Amino acid sequence: MAKKFTFSAGIHPPHGKKQTEAEPLIGFPTPQKVSIPMAMHIGAPAKAIVKKGDIVVAGQCIGEPSGFVSVPVFASISGEVTAITEVFHPMGQMVPAVEISSNGSEETVTLEPILNWREQSPSDLINRIRDCGVVGRGGASFPTHVKLSPPQDKKIDTLIINGAECEPYLTADHRVMLERTLEFVTGSLITQHILGVEKTYIAIEKNKPDAIAAVKKMLESIGDKKISVIALETKYPQGGEKQLIQAITKRQVPSGKLPMDAGCVVTNVGTAHSIYKAVAHGVPLYRRVVTVTGKSVHKPGNYIIPVGTSIREILEYAETDLSTIKKVLMGGPMMGLALASLDVPIVKSTSGLLVLETTTPAEQEYNCINCGACVQACAIHLIPSHFSKLVKRQKYEECEQKNILDCIECGSCSYVCPSKINLVHYIKLGKNRIAAAKRAQSLRKDGQ
Amino acid sequence: MTTERTLDLHISSSPHIRDSRSVPHIMRDVVLALIPAMIAGFIFFGIRSLMLIASAVIAAVVTEYVISEKLLKRSNAIGDWSAVITGILVAMNMPVAAPIWMAALGSAFAIAVAKWTFGGLGNNFINPALAGRAFLMASFPAQMTGTIFSQSGLFGKVPSPLCGMDAVVTSASATAWGGADALSGATPLAALPNLISSGANIQDTLLPLFWGNVGGCIGETSAIAILIGAIFLLGRRVIGFTIPVIYVATVFILALFFSGVEGASPLSSDAATVALFHILSGGLLFGAVFMATDMVTSPITIKGQAIFALGCGVLTFVIRKFGGYPEGVSYSILLMNLVTPLIDRYVSPRVYGTGKK
């Protein structure tokens, strides 16, 4: 029997990918106006370096990084800067942003391509990746150049390119793997070169057999012995960093640590594609593939959309029946964010827009019946139901002892709970309170 | 398209989709799984068994309704089907000759005292049906253990091996299994020590025990009916293998070693026969499948469930072998119910990336 690559526990939610998995990548018409937030990554926000009335070209830097864990921001369309303002980030808070109105020009600028990347030093390539504003596409938006610069004492031997796309409904990575195979594989090779690793795995769930076949064929023609394809079992959250590392290397990321502490770097297919564009074409990250889907979307698809485009404009272009929708999600149904307003821009990490016609979870909550479904589902092997009870009683310290901070918030426990308890909600609340208590504690220490 | 329209968008934290399985689904599955055992009870004990079940279920549902909706003004308690299960289980744990009102009293006690004084479904720390049974056992020992089978079964026969066993015990010349109109006597388990000491052929009792034409409580009589229910529950993932398998296996292994058959080694066929008799008779299978697996009162982790089941098995055997009662299933499960919060406190799976327990 063939070896199975997977992790223990997990769930099998409906895929919901049928609607868009066969839709080819398609360009989105240049919007009249974009609002580009300066904070689209974890770390310090970028500083706007343009002012009202400036004429900018797509690909031009409009925000400078303000620290190591920070990346520049680029104009996503050509036109005039009409405001330096604040917009609602999809996450809810107001962030500084640059508003650009299109002047109809399709002009773009790029940096100098680096054609002989194999001869370049890793640090030069890392600088290029930073200069192009590349951030992780898995959702956390961690600056990629930081991820590729592990401290000297961390020995990295494995690179995992994450093409699992286990989140239901999303097909953006799937289409990139099918249609931009050479590009993202080259991006993977560039990353492999930067890290100097012995093994690179491109990990794809078995529910995308065409992508597995396409990448396999491409790797055969390239003939690099260090890089191979792994066909993962289809299970959620297979694409979680910790689960991928466990599935492929049998290692576990130590609690509270990062993948590099297990000798691994995990990077997304979309990120690998951006790395390729940044290095081989000098194209910064200012557009991205977004899966737009849902029953009420009459022109669903995988659109290549300029960062900063309003979600309302995207949904209208995709012929969405706004009268029937109850919920709009940025991302997929398991970990996506429910939006309060359509008048927010998409950001570098927006992998999908999903509209739902129901207000899930609308069902009533029963008492916990101790059935253990959440325990069986938890990929981190926690007892989620205990957290909901402890958080209700505000016993945050006990939550911490029970490793609440290791939760990856994948949503599996809430999904399976027959009592319909929103376990992830309580866990997020508990984590939030613990973090707040720690901040208060360190403030008190500083005050002494 | 109208861009100025305000949308009333629903906000909640992720995940935004949910599995369709809910508490009422699980409880309905348990009710379905009890149907074969109810049919077996009807076949072997007659219509009266169904009357007891009906009486207990009605009392349970009415009690649940009055407490949750009238006194506490909650709305969802009846819809979750758990009171129906409690009612069925209380009746199934009674001998068929018990008075009809007693079934109603037992299940009303189960719902009102064992379940709602602690806050309803999910908050009770002991199995309500078993608490109801224990209450009846303590209050009406004669009617609860008397095992007077005064009613005819579907085929005009009274559950018979009982008389068979008495016959075996009284005269070594075993008369035919069955056929009398009214009987009183010991349940198979109560008869076991005599059967062993008299040197009777216990093997002959195994088949009736498997099919169910033996005395005892309504639900526990037919092993095959219980197993059909168990397969259904396992297939629907309402119960796992851990509790029933470890519970029954523990009793089986202990019975092999302490069979009570003189000079028999644990691996001898005599010991195996006694061990089989142990798992097929009394309420063990019924308890292991329907009572010990109650989610609310059993541990949440697989490891915890294994400890729980092992404890149930050891206690059951100790009570059967050394205790004052011939049967120990219900008290064993009740005792382990009490230990469950402790198990859940200290037994947890190894968290990913911690390397510690």
Topology, element by element:
The complex is a heterodimer of chains A (448) and B (357).
Chain A: H1 18-21, E1 25-27, E2 33-37, E3 47-48, E4 55-56, E5 61-64, E6 73-74, E7 79-88, E8 94-102, H2 122-131, H3 144-147, E9 158-163, H4 172-179, H5 181-195, E10 199-205, H6 209-222, E11 227-232, H7 241-249, E12 264-268, H8 269-281, E13 287-293, E14 301-306, H9 311-317, E15 327-330, E16 337-338, E17 352-356, H10 373-377, H11 384-392, H12 396-401, H13 412-416, H14 423-447
Parallel strand pairs in A: 1-14, 9-10, 9-12, 10-11, 13-17
Antiparallel strand pairs in A: 2-8, 3-5, 4-7, 5-6, 7-8, 13-14, 15-16, 15-17
Chain B: H1 23-45, H2 47-71, H3 82-92, H4 100-115, H5 128-139, H6 141-145, E1 148-149, H7 161-170, E2 183-184, H8 188-198, H9 203-211, H10 223-235, H11 242-257, H12 269-280, H13 284-291, H14 302-322, H15 329-346
Antiparallel strand pairs in B: 1-2
Helix pairs in contact in B: 1-2, 1-3, 1-10, 2-3, 2-4, 3-4, 3-5, 4-5, 5-15, 7-8, 9-12, 10-13, 11-12, 11-13, 11-14, 14-15
What are the salient characteristics of this protein?
heterodimer; A: 448 residues; alpha/beta; Rossmann fold; six-stranded mixed beta sheet; four-stranded antiparallel beta sheet; 14 helices; 30% helix; 19% strand; B: 357 residues; mainly alpha; 2 domains; two-stranded antiparallel sheet; 15 helices; globular
Write a structural description:
- The complex is a heterodimer of chains A (448) and B (357).
- In chain A, the strands form four sheets. Chain A has a six-stranded mixed sheet. In chain A, strands 2-8-7-4 form a four-stranded antiparallel sheet, with no helix packed on it.
- Chain A is globular and about 60 Å long.
- Among the domains of chain A are: 112-281, 3-Layer(aba) Sandwich (Rossmann fold), CATH 3.40.50; 373-447.
- With 448 residues, chain A is an alpha/beta fold.
- In chain A, helix 2 (122-131) crosses helix 8 (269-281), helix 4 packs parallel to helix 6 (209-222) and helix 5 (181-195) crosses helix 8 (269-281).
- Chain A has helices spanning 18-21, 122-131, 144-147, 172-179, 181-195, 209-222, 241-249, 269-281, 311-317, 373-377, 384-392, 396-401, 412-416, 423-447; strands at 25-27, 33-37, 47-48, 55-56, 61-64, 73-74, 79-88, 94-102, 158-163, 199-205, 227-232, 264-268, 287-293, 301-306, 327-330, 337-338, 352-356.
- Chain A is built from 14 helices and 17 strands.
- With 357 residues, chain B is mostly helical.
- Chain B has two domains: 24-145, no CATH class; 167-174 and 184-344, no CATH class.
- Helices cover 59% and strands 1% of the residues of chain B.
- A two-stranded antiparallel sheet of chain B has the order 1-2.
- In chain B, helix 3 packs across helix 4 (100-115), helix 3 (82-92) packs parallel to helix 5 and helix 7 (161-170) packs parallel to helix 8 (188-198).
- The radius of gyration of chain B is 22 Å and the shape is globular.
- The N and C termini of chain B lie far apart (58 Å).
- In chain B, 52% of the residues are buried.
- The model of chain B is unreliable at 148-185 (pLDDT under 50).
- Chains A and B meet through strand 15, strand 16, helix 13 and helix 14 of A and helix 1 of B.
